[in-house]
Input
Amino acid sequence: MILKKNYLEKLEFDKILDLAKFVVKENFKHHSNNILPKDYEEDVHSIYKEEVNYFKDSEIFVAKDYLGKILGSIRVLKWNYIDVLPLQKFFGINPLIVSENTNVNNIFHIGRFAIKKEVRDINLFKKLMVCATVPICKHKDNIAIAECDGKLLRILNLLGIKTTILGESINYLGSETIPIYINYEGLKKFYNQNKSLVLDDILSPIRETVKLPKSIVLNEQLKNYSLV
Output
């Protein structure tokens, strides 16, 4: 039985494995009729390793019921310009050239978004998205990149989040996954309309800003490069 009431919290480091299991199982539940592939534990291990590596630069938010079971999750990562992001690994897209804005302040990656299949609560969806968009909406020159399935992309657009598709989709964790880009202008309306859903005490500032090294600052020539 899924309790209707839920609460948000930041996930601690020692619970990352729980997150990885939740994300993988829920993705396959949503897209593969509850059938887990034989090698699904490899996906769990891969996500676990990746999130352990990202943890120092990220915030992971989870919604739980009052039994402590995870109902939903999302992670926002402030890119350090060193770690390899899924956009690079799976799509071959350089995060430095996804934006037409050559004065990018910070690049964020949104990932690990999942909601338990049995939960039908649009406010939970909105709360998790607000948690991820808070640091992005702190500066007009921040941008976000993500990889999301087709259904999620349609919902984001219906909620007023303006996205730009960056390349062809691939199959990942049982679903069609599409690389997207979102800037401050595309997020601010949704954020301003829904930020009241989330308590301030869960949204402490993400870790200190990582500055873009001068050696890789964008120039006009880079904007003409292929994204894929």
